[in-house]
Amino acid sequence: MLLSSLISALALNACFVKGTFHPSHLSPGLHRHSPHASAAAVGASLSAHFDTSVGTIDGYKPKFTQACQQKKTDVLIHGLGDIKGSISVLGSVGGLAQVDVNILTTKVFSLMVKLQAILKIIDQHKLTSSCTSAIGDLKGSLQVMISVLASRHTDVAAKCTGAGVDLNFYARVGIKLDVNAKVDIDTDVDTSGADVDDDGSDVDDDGSDVDDDSADVDDDGANVDASSKVVANLQASISVTEGLAPNFKSACEKKNVNVVTSGLASIKTSISALGTDANAFAHIDADVLSTHVVSLFVKLQVLLRSISDNKLSAQCQSAIVPLQAPLKAMLSIAASVGVDVSAKISASVDVKLFAQVGLDLGINANAAAGAGAGSGGYGAGGIRPRGIGGSGSATVHVDVSAKVVTDLHASTSLMHDLEPRFKTACANKNVDVVVGGLASIKTSIVALGPSAAVYAKVDAETLTTNVISLFVKLQILLRLISDSKMGPSCKDSIVALQAPLKAMISVVASVGIDISAKISAAVDVNLFTQIGLSIGVNAAVKVGAGVGAGAGVNVGAGVGAGAGVAAGAGAGVGVGVFTSAKVLADFKASTSTVVTLAPTFKTACDQKNVAVLNQGLVSIVASIASVGAHANVVAHASANDLCTQFFELLVKLQILLKIIDQHSLASSCKGSIASLNAPLKVLLSVLVSLGVDVSAKAKAYTSLDWSFFANVGVKIDIHAGASIGA
Q1: Main-chain dihedrals φ then ψ at residue 155, nearest 5 degrees
Q2: SS3 letters across 111-161
Q3: Keywords in UniProt for this one (predicted)?
Q4: N-to-C CA span, the chain
Q5: Per-residue pLDDT for 232 more than 60?
Q6: Within a 10 A sphere around the Cβ of 171, how many other Cβ atoms?
Q7: Between 511 and which of 290, 446, 456, 644 could a Cys-Cys bridge form, CB atoms 3.0 to 4.6 Å apart?
Q8: Burial 382-414 (b: 16+ CB within 10 A, else e)
Q9: Are 498 and 529 contained in the same domain?
Q10: CB atoms inside a 10 Å sphere around CB 706
Q11: Confidence check: pLDDT of 621 > 50
């Protein structure tokens, strides 16, 4: 029941957000020119969704009670995420406006009473602080409901009192609702329908013209609805940020990093909820958009100042950096529709403070983009009118595809920053910290979005490298969890990563990139499976029929059928594009990458800059994996050439690893170094399958110190051929 309601909810919500919603989507049998019937269908559908959400919330009551008694915060966070999903569809201004106000009032407060009951269970067991982010994520949809009621002349405060909704309690646990906030409700969606289609009789006689006109009206209504939702979400984000100020001040003074990072995660979620629909932004009044965005930055500055003044920036980097992608996306989209927000932000906040705590917003670049759009003749107020030509759309696509790359960087950076915290938490068996980190990772991956059209705009090599880097970083964290035997305790949070990861793999595969094979070559897929993540990528790599028995490698099985995209790479796939000469060239390029990183690594080691070392190692892993991903093609290359390249790569790699080891930084880079094992294993397996006596060939490379490799975590068993154990 929960799954079906979530699927239904997400489908409906997608229509609202994308601006494609029409009442007939809910009731195909109703003619689009029947406003009364369509409004009734919308109202009935949303009313049913309210009942489903209330049932979902009520169903979690016994589970939450048991989880609280057992202090299983991962169960609570997972459940709150499900609840958020079930109520998110209800947070649409246009949809709620079509529900009878009396019914809407009853439904909203019934839902809030049920939600209050389970939040009190959490609060009574003193677990609210452990679930701050997940609780705060509920605010956006609730605020929209409250604002719609207030806009329809409902005394929300009085109704709350009468229904038993304790607004003070909601505020105390992190959901501070403004009962006086209102939103603009388009009169065209009013259920009265009094002035809808005055020429109805003539319309029926000449349906062809009416279809065209009404289509435009429908688009306008959907865009107005979507833009209203953006404004409501901006208001909610501002409220979340402002409401956290007292908690931040106290937490920073007490050096309570967990409270601060949890709050920042809530802010990121609220900003991400704004979406990336340029059409929705374009339909917002320029002054309204500017005022809200600047207000958000002003409120955020207050929190960042508390962090900076109390010297907590470094400890909160894992939560500060993820804010960068959604903030830059917001600025980019605003600029793309002609609203120069950047200049106003520069005049309103201390941009240097943002940079000092780790937020590079690129304000100057965005300001220029905004000015250019404005001077390009998009009209008074900087709003781009509807119907402007294709160049505008292309700009939006470029902006959004750039956002995908930025979000991939942010997600990878988040995992990198979480590594030291995971090490400590796993050593101390601190499940709460690990679960909280996994929840942040899930949010960052979900933020990437499922649009194949957007992914197709990203350079294939850039997209591949970034996705592989993400999996490599995630593997490091999963290895820590597995080694500390904490997999079962974190199972729900781990499994929650599966859907967004598979969705990402599916979308990347759908634009023609054999990402499945590259992932299997870069990471230990068995580890993912053992810990509970079935991502639809086979661990083995098949070198090719007749190339040699017993290699034990299988490049190519693709994304699982459940993901909805056939991405498999059979024995011959890609041979036309990736010739053996091309792969050998890539092999040499991978070795060159290692060589060029030597001076960077030396400087980084001198400065004890572990972040640079880890990032460099991840890029090396990705470059080696890109070669191994085409093992079926590599197998057709000269065995001697392959062997030479393999050992030259190891010689250069040893130089880098010795630089790290000589500076006593190997333990700090342990996870990234261990990530080299999987792609090297693939290459070694190819050599063995070709009949190469690797052990004999190795004797010619006297500089290679196999015991050194093993000591730092790269275990190459050349005597056993393909046996490289991590």
Answers
A1: -80, 90
A2: HHHHHHHHHHHHHHCCCCHHHHHHHHCCHHHHHHHHHHHHHCCCCHHHHHH
A3: Signal
A4: 42
A5: yes
A6: 12
A7: 456
A8: bbbeeebeeebeebbbebbbbbbbbbbbbbbbb
A9: yes
A10: 16
A11: yes
Residues 534 and 666 in one domain: no
Both 619 and 470 in one domain: the answer is no
Q: Which of 113-127, 145-159, 218-232, 523-537 has the highest mean pLDDT?
A: 113-127
Question: What's the DSSP call for residue 668?
Answer: G
User: Does residue 153 surpass a pLDDT of 80?
Assistant: yes
CA separation for the pair 135, 123 (Å, rounded): 11
For 261, how many CA atoms within 13 A lie in the half-sphere containing its CB?
24
pTM of the model: 0.33
Residue 461 is encoded by which pair of tokens? 């090599």
Cβ atoms of residues 241 and 267 within 8 Å: yes
**DSSP H or E segment with residue 642:** helix 639-662
Look-up: residue for tokens 């949890």? Answer: 262
Q: How many domains does the chain have?
A: 3
**Sequence-ordered list of residues with C-beta below 8 angstroms from that of 666, at least 6 positions apart, any chain:** 657, 660, 673, 712, 713
C-beta of residue 24 within 8 angstroms of C-beta of residue 30: yes
Cβ neighbours, 10 Å, residue 709 = 20
- The answer to whether position 45 is within a domain reads yes
Domain boundary residue among 563, 591, 623? 563
3-state helix, strand, coil in the chain (%, to 5): 70, 0, 30
CB-based burial label for 55 (10 Å; 0-12, 13-18, 19+): middle
The whole-angstrom separation of Cα 713 and Cα 726 is 7
Selected residue with higher pLDDT from 382 and 94: 94
| Cα dist from 429 to 69, 478, 485, whole Å | 18, 14, 9
If asked whether residues 557 and 594 sit together in one domain, one would say no
| Same domain? 432 vs 559 | yes
DSSP 666: T
Contact yes or no for 675/681 (Cβ under 8 A): no
Residue 391 has which token pair?
């160049």
pLDDT (tens digit per residue) in 421-435: 888 889 888 888 888
Asked if residue 143 is part of any domain, the answer here is yes
pLDDT at 628: 59
* Residue 537 tokens, joined: 């990528």
CA dist list (Å): 562 to 56, 140, 536, 660, 698: 25, 31, 8, 43, 44
**Residue 629 DSSP symbol:** T
Kindly give, in sequence order, each residue whose CB lies less than 8 Å from that of residue 529, ignoring residues fewer than 6 positions away: 539
pLDDT of residue 99: 78
Per-residue tokens: 643: 């062997």
148 and 17 within one domain: yes
Question: Of 501, 536, 563, which residue sits at a domain end?
Answer: 563
Q: How far, rounded to the nearest angstrom, does the alpha carbon of residue 441 sit from its chain's CA centroid?
A: 7
With tokens 């093992």, the residue in question is 631
Residue 591 lies in a domain: yes
- Which comes out higher in pLDDT, residue 571 or 162? 162
CB 388 within 8 A of CB 395: no
Helix (H) or strand (E) holding 686: helix 677-689
Can you give the residue range of the structural domain that contains 644? 580-720
The stretch 482-502 carries a mean pLDDT of: 87
Of 597 and 16, the one with more pLDDT: 597
Three-state SS string across 368-433, please?
A: HHHHHHHHCCCCHHHCCCCCCCHHHHHHHHHHHHHHHHHHHHHHHHHHHHHHHHHHHHHHCCCHHH
**For helices 390-427 and 460-483, angle between their N-to-C axes, nearest 10 degrees:** 20
**Which amino acid is located at 132 in the chain?**
T
628 belongs to a structural domain: yes
My answer on whether 541 and 602 are in the same domain is no
